[in-house]
Design brief:
Number of strands: 0
CATH architecture: Up-down Bundle
Bound molecules: protoporphyrin IX containing FE
CATH topology: Heme Oxygenase, Chain A
CATH superfamily: Heme oxygenase-like
Order of helices and strands: HHHHHHHH
Number of helices: 8
Shape: globular
Radius of gyration: 16 Å
Mean pLDDT: 93
Number of domains: 1
Largest sheet: none
Helix content: 55-70%
Length: 198
């Protein structure tokens, strides 16, 4: 990306990317420093992070207002693959001991879309993680189902999401709530990573 393009001239997805760049980079570094692909035990901790993040977001993938906006939103949900990955590795599923991150009725749309941006974008970056998981003998049929690309192709599937996101008419306040939602989502993942690899 041209560093001289003012943030406001970017599409919404690119603005979200620019606004969360350093948060994402810090998260990447934190995760890689924790060596989640050193062995299956450490990978299991990474799975725990992913599982709890996606479980918290699951209600959004069934929210009728969001389903109307995002192509194939229910099909994008990766909680089932994560559940199977956990079971593949013999990991117990964490108890449901906290309220979901979102109630399906009350979610503020721009905030929810900011969170979804993070969950969906993470599948684009997951190409790299999927390759690393292969080193542990894991793939789309065992243990790394949630990291697999969509049959349409990761990039194409992502573009369908960002096209829908970019098409929504947001005012400045809504724009900011989307950014705040994405930032909060990255922070939530960071907290989970810190817990998992403490
Ligand atoms: C070590 C861990 C990670 C690495 C190395 C990594 C790496 C990457 C890479 C290389 C991309 C760009 C992919 C492309 O443009 O083709 C990307 C995109 C992205 N990743 Fe990560 N990622 C990691 C973890 C995460 C996590 C845990 C999340 C959030 C849960 C996340 C959220 C995103 C988002 C939202 C994008 C899309 C950015 C955009 O283009 O707007 N990443 N990641």
């Amino acid at each position: 990306m041209n560093a001289h393009v003012p943030v406001l001239d970017l599409s919404r997805a690119k603005r979200l990317k620019a606004s969360t760049r350093s948060t994402h980079e810090q998260l990447d570094s934190r995760i890689m420093a924790a060596e989640p692909f050193r062995d299956r035990e450490r990978y299991g901790r990474f799975l725990w992070v992913q599982y709890l993040f996606h479980r918290g977001l699951a209600p959004l993938y069934a929210n009728p207002r969001l389903v109307a906006l995002v192509p194939d939103l229910p099909g994008r949900r990766r909680l089932d693959q994560l559940t199977r990955d956990m079971l593949d590795l013999g990991q117990p599923l964490p108890a449901v001991d906290s309220a979901p991150l979102f109630s399906d009725k009350a979610a503020d749309l721009p905030t929810a879309l900011g969170w979804l941006y993070v969950a969906e974008g993470s599948n684009l970056g997951a190409a790299f993680l999927f390759k690393a998981a292969a080193g542990l003998g894991l793939d789309e049929t065992f243990g790394a189902r949630h990291l697999a690309g969509h049959p349409d192709g990761r990039a194409r599937h992502w573009r369908q999401f960002t096209d829908a996101l970019d098409a929504l008419p947001f005012d400045d306040a809504q724009e900011q709530r989307a950014i705040d939602g994405a930032t909060a989502a990255f922070r939530r993942v960071r907290e989970l990573v810190d817990d998992a690899f403490a």
